[in-house]
């Protein structure tokens, strides 16, 4: 018997999976501990003019699909009207069959707007108009959209120099939603980044003093960490290509910083030394603060000079990179662990060939201080689709403790992305249900359902001390 598209039991292929999802996974609130939402939208409880502004303005997943479908940039990030941009996205959607965008698009239309028609060129106008009306209602403001998905906590991604004014304003609003900042200092660690000096100048302005030595830089960053801590921050995040096993000295770091300030070119070894020295000092501070540090490793970013010149970073021109991960990651974690200064850590890989590497690396440094202290994180970016999630869940099950996993996140700039938690939960329940049906797990729905609740909600709540 054929199933209807996106029906009540979507992705659930047996009765055990259906019970696990509907009775245990679905009721759980959402903790989204890593995303790129704009805090100003939350703090102001923004009302969006139309679905293009909400859905397409910053979604590089959709941009990539539209470019691949032959759509001119004018209708993607250019000066075309919002209605025309939506029309061209709608015309692209039928060509995304078997890409996760096809599922996500229709899940989001259903969950947020109760629209069950397929989006295509013919239905675009009616759907644009219908969503435009709904977006003017109080239930579809920024907070309303999050409330619909039962979102309890969100952790945004913030520069060390951010004033956190929007987090402060939101906290003072007494909203039920908890919005916390995440400390993301990459732009002050990757010293050959074209924007490094601009970020350094802003940090100097905030601290009221010139930063000419490595010690000055760490001191200033420690002050910013304390500022973030005072406003609820519990996590740091680093989006790096890789970690390095490399020696460095304080004197050499000062020279590297001064040369960069003078706009002199640096060698790859000098860049790596500065990154790892900064990261090591910050990691010790994270441990002191009882924060969790996250590492998103393996992206090859800004591959297209044309798009980078036109749109800047995050233009949809990033890809999976091929970097040596094991040695540098091991050396870094081992040094901290050996000194008793390793904070809770989550590792995310972008290259699927590194799945087993990351899963086993996480298992090397648990110390009994907390369950699942070192985590291999959820399938990330290009891997957060059905096949990628299944592979991550299966590999973690084989080489670690799935039961202690802190679950899914959106990693998204869109307020409409939260059905990705539902997508993950359905996939998780289907895999466990299949094992029950096959006799590979006990037919104890209550016991396994309790584990599902942990993975979907409680593990994250306990792990991050929310």
Describe the structure.
- The protein is of the alpha/beta class.
- The chain has 19 helices and ten strands.
- The chain has helices at 15-25, 39-43, 51-55, 60-68, 82-92, 100-113, 124-134, 142-148, 165-172, 196-207, 214-230, 250-261, 268-289, 305-311, 326-338, 355-363, 386-399, 419-437, 445-463, and strands at 30-32, 151-155, 178-180, 182-183, 235-240, 292-297, 299-300, 319-320, 344-349, 374-376.
- The strands form three sheets. Strands 4-5-6-9-10 form a five-stranded parallel beta sheet, covered by helices on one side.
- Helix 1 crosses helix 18.
- It is globular.
Radius of gyration: 23 Å
User: Looking at the structure, what is the overall shape?
Assistant: globular
Helix content: 40-55%
Q: Sheet bearing the most strands, described? A: 5 strands, parallel
CATH topology of the largest domain: TIM Barrel
For this structure, what is the CATH class of the largest domain?
A: Alpha Beta
Q: What's the architecture of the largest domain in CATH terms?
A: Alpha-Beta Barrel
Q: Give the spatial strand order of the biggest sheet.
A: 4-5-6-9-10
Strand content: 5-15%
SS field, number of helical segments: 19
Structural class, by secondary structure, is: alpha/beta
Helix and strand string, N-terminal first?
HEHHHHHHHEHEEHHEHHEEHEHEHEHHH
Low-confidence stretches: none
Mean pLDDT: 97
List the domain count as a whole number: 2
Q: What's the name of the CATH homologous superfamily of the largest domain?
A: Metal-dependent hydrolases
> In whole angstroms, how far apart are the ends?
45 Å
In total, the number of strands is 10
